[in-house]
Design brief:
elongated, 3 helices, alpha+beta, 131 residues
């Protein structure tokens, strides 16, 4: 059973459960996840091998988190293309000419993929959470 722990300093911690055997609970949890993302919560899910990724969107129809996952092949191609185009990847090079539009596209380094909400656990933190 997959669950999302919602960390909330004021009201204590809460858990949402995505149980395949209980469709009503899955629908309820999906609506809450969509609302949390809309409100700016940081939602991190386990993608295996001890790694977590931030959720960008949630597909209510399939109960899937949409994450930006690092793709080494895509990143290597983007680095090669930047080198061919003569674009430096350092922060100093990007800030040296702020008026010029950047050719570099940050999104090329990651690939969106779906992760089943019924098969992974995660944690959500409100954007206003603090100590």
């Amino acid at each position: 059973m997959a669950e999302i722990g919602i960390l909330n300093v004021g009201a204590g911690d809460t858990k949402l459960v995505f149980d395949k055997n209980n469709p009503a609970e899955c629908i309820r949890a999906a609506r809450i996840v969509k609302d949390m993302l809309r409100r700016g919560y940081a939602l991190l899910v386990d993608v295996g091998k001890g790694k977590t990724r931030r959720v960008l969107e949630f597909d209510e129809t399939k109960f899937e988190y949409i994450i930006a996952d690092f793709d080494p092949v895509t990143a290597e191609e983007a680095d090669r293309k930047e080198k061919e185009d003569g674009i430096e990847s350092s922060a100093a090079a990007r800030t040296a000419t702020p008026a010029a539009p950047e050719k570099r596209q940050e999104g090329k380094r990651s690939v969106r993929r779906a992760v089943a909400a019924t098969a992974t656990s995660g944690v959500a933190v409100a954007r206003t959470a603090g100590g």
